[in-house]
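Exercise: predict the fold of this chain.
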Amino acid sequence: MEFAEVVRKRRMVRHFKPDPIDPAVVNRMLDLARRVPSAGYTQGQSFVVVTDPETRREIGKLCGEDGYVAHFGHRWISEAPVQVIPCVSEAAYHARYQEPDKLRPDGTEIEWPVPFWFMDIGMSVMTLLLAVVDEGLAAGYAGIPETAALRDLLGIPPEVTPVGVIPIGYPAPDVPSPSLKRGRKPLEDVVHWERW
């Protein structure tokens, strides 16, 4: 598939067939997601892959899945055969930027006007979402209101932040998000040449 087609086909899907996904395919997609740029080559991103049905149901509950059922008609987070929880470690970035080659001339760590750890995990998530399309699969994204409980459930260390849940599977007919009615902004509204 051409890259432009992959980008245009990517959308959030909220209904999946129960068909399992070959672990080799999951590894291929995650191998691409780990290859994104990272500040100082910190590589502070990590992923938890969940395929166990009972654990997927628990994760669905922690994401507030019950509230989605009325709108979408099914439990779209837990029904996906694979859930990927992308995580990032802010501590890894601070540790990296306290190494000699990254210290400022006065021997201190840089200031972080932008938390690049979130930028980097965002790039990993987008790469994963595009890899999903390239493999002929579909994915959604759910926030995690119960982050502490998710950490406990999956044994995620306290210095690691899970940033969401990505259900992945073969697409089934779903209800498009009502937010799509807003339409995509025109290119000239989002691109500014030379200056704002």
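Check your answer against the key: The chain has nine helices and five strands.
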